[in-house]
Amino acid sequence: MATPTLAHFKLPQIDNEPMLNYAPGSAERVKIEAAVKEMIAQGTVEVPVVINGEKIYTGKTCEQLNPSNHKSVVAKFHEADAALTQKAIDGALAAKAKWESLPFNDRVAVFLKAADLLATKYRYKVMAATMLGQGKNIWQAEIDAAAELCDFLRFNCKYAEEIYSQQPPKNAPGTWNRTEFRGLEGFVLAISPFNFTAIGGNLPAAPALMGNVVLWKPSPGAVHSNYLVYEILVEAGLPAGVIQFVPGPAEEICGHAIASPEFSSLHFTGSTHVFRKLWREIGNNIDNYKSYPRIVGETGGKNYHILHPSLDQDGVRHAALQTIRGSFEYQGQKCSACSRCYVPASQFAQFKKDIIEEHAKITQGPVEEFHHFSGPVINKFAFDKIKSFIDHAATDDDCEIIAGGKCDDSVGYFIEPTVIVTKNKFAKTMTEEIFGPVVTIYVYDDADFEATCKLVGETTQYGLTGAFFAKDRDSIVQGSNLLRNTAGNFYINDKCTGAVVGQQPFGGGRASGTNDKAGSWSLLTRFISTRTVKESFVPIENFVYPSNAI
Ligand SMILES: NC(=O)c1ccc[n+]([C@@H]2O[C@H](COP(=O)([O-])OP(=O)(O)OC[C@H]3O[C@@H](n4cnc5c(N)ncnc54)[C@H](O)[C@@H]3O)[C@@H](O)[C@H]2O)c1
Ligand SMILES: N[C@@H](CCC=O)C(=O)O
Question: What is its EC number (predicted)?
Fold first, then answer.
């Protein structure tokens, strides 16, 4: 039965999800503490593969460990394989026609409802899973699993509505022109990282909202929280098959999906080398696809803070505090985390003193000791990798560790927030992505500000985020111009992390990604294939034109 269109519906007002503050004794603090305790008491959770609404327990399982205490298994998840991936593709394609023909308001309602369920009924549960599974403290879990994910789900609806309202401005007499924003033919493959529950949710949800069907391969480091998000979408009314939840071996699942002629798009967030590998696989398979696949990927970074010589004492202190936050929040495991810092020689003594004094106030420990600013890194692989950077700096004559540097994986994967000062502008820790709580400072001559801006752009292959601290407007304009192509998200007198959906659309260029800007309308345009429709109302009477008259 055709669906009648009986009105143009207006979306509810879309605003950022208000962030709660979780001060000790507050109502929300009591609730999150209770949710964490309940989740610990519940023990290991079993997570299935979900295909066409069916929960599949394959029996081939993998464990997600609690990074604060690696003896504790957060989740045992069942793994899909190539055969199940094919079943997921077939099921998704079968679900597509009904899903994309659902009226826009009904599609939107699923995601708005999911956001409301997350903000209320499931807020503390998803936060607790993000804390215990991904090693976030309360505040980091709130800004990710509650606020950012609600914002993605809601703002996507607003942006989709704006896209749908873009119609041809002109119609010749007797005709009517329209634009349809179709989903892509085939299916989208969404591959998500461990570090943001919100990104996990957005990678499949954004294309699904635009009428696509999606295979979601979550990160093994975030399976529990991601599965809860999946269940919320289902409770909100997402039809079976529209998003297929397929955890398991990345190469087997993703390789099979990318080899399918029906593969229409990659929506990826993760490391640069994995994205490049996938891009190559897609390129190698180009003759077999029904359509040219859309490749969307947000990847690594080597983000910077740079201080201008114009800063006064307050400005330097502000930059030092923002550097502590930008480098060490969530143990530096944000793609946007500050990892290198350029300080003029005239300000270095004060900056160093401020950094060391503030660093001494950082406490670190398991996430269920709720007051800690710093927690564990995600797993043994990350621990060993980050430690190797610190070990390298410890033996490098050009480098001095001025704060932190200790690593302990006896119970959880703890790495002290570490500050290195280097004389080598191309030191290993100035050039390579570490993805951990390590920041390296390079001191430049005040007279070399312009050259240092050039250096910022030439030191790494990345271009994700950067922050510039300066006092007067002329310096701000100068720095902003010189640093234009070094970052997709550029901050003036603020830290280089903490982008908010609806406020700072997020993404970078160069090796940091395709810069399609998560949390904006432009990302959504990657998952649509427009159809232009012209309708004529009046029959023609002759095929010749006046100019053909003799
Ligand atoms: N630019 C951004 O917006 C952004 C946001 C978050 C994280 N990141 C980046 O993500 C990285 C950290 O996340 P991570 O450790 O989860 O990244 P990762 O690249 O190790 O994993 C990301 C996803 O890719 C999958 N994967 C790994 N190898 C694969 C393969 N061979 N084929 C197919 N899939 C494969 C993983 O299982 C996971 O689901 C960092 O580099 C960080 O900068 C970027
Ligand atoms: N919204 C986040 C994105 C981080 C990616 O890992 C930030 O800017 O901190």
Answer: 1.2.1.88
Q: Give the residue, by CA position, lying nearest to ligand 2 atom 9.
A: 498
Confidence of residue 3 (pLDDT cuts 50, 70, 90): confident
Side chain identity at residue 95, one-letter code = A
Q: Which residues are catalytic?
A: 298, 335
- Asked whether 195 lines ligand 1 (CB < 6 A), one says yes
Positive or negative, the CA dihedral 456, 458, 463, 464 is negative
C-alpha of residue 506 to centroid of ligand 2, in Å: 7
**Ligand 1 proximity of 274 Cβ (cutoff 6 Å):** yes
Dist. CA 204–CA 243, nearest whole Å? 7
196 CB within 6 A, ligand 1: yes
In this structure, are residues 364 and 417 in contact, taking their beta carbons and an 8 Å threshold? Answer: yes
Distance CA 159, CA 164 (A): 9
The answer to whether the beta carbons of residues 305 and 338 sit under 8 Å apart is yes
Query: Ligand 1: which of 64, 148, 195 to mutate, judged by most atoms within 8 Å of the beta carbon?
Result: 195
Residue whose CB lies within 8 A of the most ligand 1 atoms, among 77, 134, 152, 269, for a mutation test:
269
CB distance 276 to ligand 1 below 6 Å: no
> Residues 6 or more apart from 203 whose CB is under 8 A from it?
190, 191, 192, 216, 267, 268, 269
ipTM, two decimals: 0.98
User: Ligand 1: distance of its center to the CA of 476 in Å?
Assistant: 34
CB 506 within 8 A of CB 298: yes
Q: Are 193 and 269 in contact (CB under 8 A)?
A: yes
Quickly tell me which residue has 């004492």 as its tokens: 313
Query: What pLDDT digit, counting tens, does each position of 488-504 carry?
Result: 999 999 999 999 999 99
Report how far ligand 2's centroid is from the alpha carbon of 87 (Å).
34
Q: How many C-alpha atoms does 163 have within 13 Å on its Cβ side?
A: 24
Q: What is the DSSP string of 241-268?
A: TSEEE--S-HHHHHHHHHHSTTEEEEEE
Using CA atoms, how far apart are residues 425 and 168, in angstroms rounded to an integer?
52
pTM for the complete prediction? 0.98
| pLDDT > 90? residue 458 | yes
Q: Whose CA is nearest to atom 37 of ligand 1?
A: 219
Contact (CB, 8 A) for 331 and 383: no
Rg (alpha carbons) of the chain, rounded to whole number: 25
3-state DSSP of 391-455 = HHHHHCCCEEEEECCCEECCCCCEECCEEEEECCCCCHHHHCCCCCCEEEEEEECHHHHHHHHHH
- The answer to whether 122 and 150 have CB atoms below 8 angstroms apart is no
What are the φ and ψ backbone dihedral angles of 484, each rounded to 5 degrees?
-50, -45
